[in-house]
Amino acid sequence: VQLVESGGGLAQPGGSLRLSCRGFGFAFLKYDMTWARQAPGKGLEWVSGITTNEETYYSRSVKDRFTISRNNAKSTLYLQMDNLKPEDTAVYYCAQGFPTSATLQALQALVRGQGTQVTVSS
Asked: How much is the average pLDDT of 66-89?
């Protein structure tokens, strides 16, 4: 299993970025998928998830600003991030599956990629 994120970079407050995550070595369409992030000096935080049936879920901090989607034909997961805020600055990871519980340990246990840096600053 390999997950490769891309699309991070520098954005101004109020700006947008689109992250991508390509999956290799597994049947992408058979897995729920997760986005998580880790801000400087903080722990890993769940951001969003999408099921195999394309049901979507968001944390309160990103709801109505971020949109998760997937393209199974391309084995790719996306995160469209709009109206970015400085507090969105973090390394963003995609992960295979959903955490089995609402704990940091369960989130950390997911297989995830190397991450992509998102910096929101003027």
From this structure: 98
Q: Which of 42, 40, 46, 44 is nearest to 62 (CA)?
A: 46
Alpha-carbon dihedral sign for residues 39, 56, 1, 100: positive
Q: Residue 59: which of 16, 99, 24 has the closest Cα? A: 99
Tell me if 19 sits within 8 A of 9, measured CB to CB: no
Q: Compute the distance between CA of residue 99 and CA of residue 110 in angstroms, rounded to an integer.
A: 7
**DSSP at 61:** T
Rg, Å, the chain Cα set: 13
pLDDT tens digits, one per residue of 19-48: 999 999 999 999 999 999 999 999 999 999
Read off the tokens for 121.
């600053």
Q: What CA–CA distance (Å, rounded) separates 6 from 1?
A: 17
Closest CA to 17 of 81, 65, 63, 85: 81
